[in-house]
UniProtKB/TrEMBL annotation, chain A:
Alphabetical keyword list: Cell membrane, Membrane, Transmembrane, Transmembrane helix, Transport
Keyword Transmembrane helix: yes
CDD domains for this protein: TM_PBP2
Listed SUPFAM superfamilies: MetI-like
Family to which this protein belongs: Belongs to the binding-protein-dependent transport system permease family.
Protein name, entry field: ABC transporter permease
Main localization category: membrane
UniProtKB/TrEMBL annotation, chain B:
Signal peptide: 1-19
Protein name per UniProt: Sugar ABC transporter substrate-binding protein
Keyword Coiled coil: no
Key word Iron present: no
Matches recorded under PANTHER family: ARABINOSE-BINDING PROTEIN-RELATED, POLYGALACTURONAN_RHAMNOGALACTURONAN-BINDING PROTEIN YTCQ
């Protein structure tokens, strides 16, 4: 009887649940709560400074022009990176699932390779490729552009690198989505005389909406937190033209050790990401309802 | 059976977790030393060290040392090994932590962690983070002042936590091959900025409209963020207000200097924003003829670009007159002692610091590894040291170099952004400078930093 009770308590299910709850409590809930609390304090853990300041950090952040500029830069970066990741990923997935292309597996592997390459390494390689003195891009194209030092080109240059690195993820997901689409719908469309273009717009794209939603939301969450490529490639420059919100948070926390302000920014980013995700789910849910 | 497996799994998990957290004790693995008479001479003139004694009563003891460098860049490491030879009962555990992590890990570790280092590498720019965890040197200040320069700048509340082993400042590095190709000789080395611009023009090459060789490259980190301070000092402008608490970036001197630098890009066309963002690399590749850099460049050139034939000359000035100061300098700091460690370990650390500062080997090694000028007075006229062109450039200016104190990093990062806004983004100088000033003031809000400019010997000549 005693053994049975203990066995029930120490069942694999209970151990797994406790481990998961413990993991989320330590690595998710605690840091989030700590960041919320920290955002109300003048906080520098390196000097044991932790003084209550109320909403002062939020006031400082919301009246800081660099914060708003970083928000704008993040929006631009995220919008174009997500849009091109979806477009390029879908186009290549359609190509790879068509009868036009041979060696599908090899190409799929090739396209996915940048996705699994460390971002720091990719950022360094692209930084050298963009170098106007010895970089491949200016040499091959014959252009004379200081890509990462030019206020007009720095952000597009980082976006191009991001798209190159990440489109493979969308390609693989779209390929899985396309291959699981019901064939009878296409047969019915064919019998009704639908052309290829009509089939794509009226059947393929709507049926791939859940995949698109997944890609858009996961991409958005990733890009709103982008800072490594900025840190390596531009350092936020020229001037502050490529400051993203996450880079600004990094700068405040780990360069200026102003963890209170950085936490306030993190809380705002957290809320912003949550709202955007909810809006996407809402919009997508409405469309799915309409299509039924 | 299932219960036994579960318990075993939990026990194994606990064991692994315990091992992973590294909560073992730091044991001392050295030998017992019974020989107090080492047969070695007493070191030093004023700060002295007699090696003929036992440390920690000859009992084995371990001390940790943390550094962001290795034996090829940090002279303390070699000296620790020397110390271990003299006192074999002392074992030093050396740990290297990457620079980017060092300033987070070290202060957090120092706070009462028994596995924290007893000795650690110090950079004066992080003084505020480290000072609360440091023990004062147990060496008479007068003795230190007699042996080393600028010791008084490191006395806080009568205590010294570290001093400068060596000091450095900016100079102009030039490519001798490109110099000769342009028909220039040693006689053409410029003394003023006007002369410098003329030389830079001769060293600049174009292919059509495209610059293929820059006469003077200012792009990237470590250029304007360092040079603006020197240029302002040359004009007699201080970095901070008279009471030393408010930054003085938004001033006429800054604007005049930015205008001068912008002209190098737009009017004189000896620099180009399209010439990459790493002037050091460009110089190393032989694409830029001159750059402004501190002594560390010498080490970079030796390891990464050994084929470059280069020379060094002192940074020009705006006129032939002696300026208020030629540039700012900065020191490489001697190690800090962790105040939170055991009395025995701190006693060994104090003994090591005395050993370090009494002899010449440490400073000689620092001069070599860090390409910097000796802080030890007895070595400042050493012919071997002065045969290095960087030391030769610094020596005559020593009296006219100023240290503003452990300045917050925003005094470098914010002006760098202002420079990029002017040069690369075409922003007007007034706006760029005012924005940077506002950023510096925001970043320094709550800081208790006070500039040490008032202690400069020629402070009465400031504007």
């Amino acid at each position: 009887m005693h053994n049975t009770t203990l066995q029930r308590i120490f069942s694999m299910r209970n151990i797994a649940v406790v481990a998961l709850v413990g993991y989320f409590a330590v690595f998710m809930a605690y840091p989030i709560i700590k960041a919320f609390a920290g955002s109300m304090h003048n906080w520098n853990p390196l000097t044991d400074t932790y003084q209550w300041v109320g909403f002062e950090n939020y006031a400082q952040v919301l009246t800081d022009s660099l914060f708003w500029k970083s928000i704008w830069n993040t929006a631009v970066y995220s919008f174009f990176s997500v849009a091109f990741r979806v477009i390029v990923g879908l186009a290549l997935a359609l190509l790879l699932t068509s009868k036009l292309v041979k060696a599908k597996s090899a190409l799929r592997g090739l396209f996915y390779m940048p996705t699994i390459t460390p971002l720091v390494a990719v950022s360094f390689v692209w930084m050298w490729m963009y170098d106007p003195q010895f970089g491949m891009i200016d040499k091959v194209t014959g252009l004379d552009i200081g890509w990462l030092n030019d206020s007009h080109w720095a952000m597009p240059a980082v976006i191009i690198m991001t798209i190159w690195k990440d489109f493979g993820y969308a390609t693989v997901l779209y390929m899985a989505g396309i291959m699981s689409l019901p064939t009878d719908v296409y047969e019915a469309a064919s019998l009704d005389g639908a052309g290829k273009w009509q089939t794509f717009w009226k059947i393929t794209l709507p049926l791939l909406r859940p995949t698109t939603l997944l890609i858009v939301i996961t991409s958005l969450i990733t890009y709103l937190q982008a800072y490594i490529q900025i840190l390596v490639m531009t350092g936020g420059g020229p001037g502050t033209d490529t400051y993203t919100i996450s880079y600004l948070i990094y700068d405040q926390a780990f360069t200026k050790y102003n963890f209170g302000v950085a936490s306030a920014m993190s809380v705002i980013l957290f809320v912003l990401t949550g709202v955007l995700t909810l809006l996407m789910f809402k919009a997508s849910g409405d469309k799915l309802e309409e299509s039924r | 059976m299932k219960l036994a497996k579960t318990c075993a799994a939990i026990a194994a998990t606990v064991l692994i977790a315990t091992a992973a957290t590294g909560c073992g004790t730091a044991g001392a693995s050295g030998v017992v030393d019974t020989n107090a008479d080492k047969g070695l001479a007493v070191l030093g003139d004023h700060v002295t060290y007699d090696p003929n004694h036992l440390v920690n009563d000859g009992q084995p003891i371990e001390i940790g040392y943390w550094s962001w460098g290795d034996a090829s860049t940090d002279p303390v490491i070699g000296m620790l090994h020397e110390y271990e030879k003299i006192h074999p009962n002392v074992t030093v555990k050396i740990s290297q932590v990457a620079w980017s992590d060092y300033w987070v890990k070290t202060p957090l570790s120092l706070k009462g962690n028994k596995n924290a280092p007893v000795l650690f590498n110090v950079h004066n720019s992080q003084d505020a983070l480290l000072r609360p965890h440091m023990e004062a040197y147990d060496i008479d200040t007068a003795d230190l002042e007699a042996d080393y320069t600028n010791v008084d700048l490191h006395v806080v509340d009568g205590k010294i936590m570290y001093i400068d082993s060596v000091i450095n400042t900016g100079n102009i590095y030039y490519n001798k091959t490109l110099w000769a190709e342009a028909g220039l000789t040693e006689d053409d080395i410029p003394a003023t900025w006007d002369e410098f611009v003329e030389v830079a023009k001769k060293l600049t090459k174009f292919d059509g409209n495209k610059m293929i060789q820059s006469g003077f490259n200012m792009n990237g980190d470590g250029r304007y963020d360092g040079l603006w301070q020197g240029l302002n000092y040359q004009r007699g402008a201080l970095m901070f207000s008279k009471d030393g608490t408010v930054a003085n970036y938004d001033c006429e001197a800054t604007k005049e200097n930015l205008e001068f630098l912008r002209d190098l890009y737009e009017t004189d066309k000896v620099s180009s924003v399209k010439f990459g963002d790493n002037s050091e690399q460009s110089f190393g590749n032989g694409q830029s003829a001159m750059i402004y850099a501190w002594g560390a460049l010498q080490g970079t050139l030796e390891t990464k670009y050994p084929d470059i034939d280069y020379g060094v000359f002192p940074t020009p000035t705006f006129s032939d007159d002696v300026p208020f100061a030629y540039d700012r300098y900065n020191g490489e700091s001697t190690p800090g002692i962790n105040v939170h460690q055991s009395e025995e370990q701190r006693a060994v650390a104090q003994d090591f610091i005395r050993f370090l500062l009494a002899g010449d080997d440490y400073v000689r090694s620092a001069v070599k590894l860090q390409n910097s000028f000796p802080g030890k007075k007895s070595l400042q006229d050493d012919s071997e040291i002065l045969s290095n062109p960087v030391m030769a450039a610094i020596k005559p200016r020593l009296d006219r170099l100023i240290w503003p104190g452990p300045v917050p990093s925003t005094l470098e990062s914010s002006p760098k952004i202002a420079f990029q806004n002017v040069i690369q983004n075409g922003q007007d100088i007034d706006t760029a400078v005012a924005t940077a000033q506002a950023q510096i003031e925001t970043d320094m809000k709550g800081s208790d930093f006070v500039s040490l400019e008032s202690k400069y010997a020629h402070i009465d000549e400031a504007q």
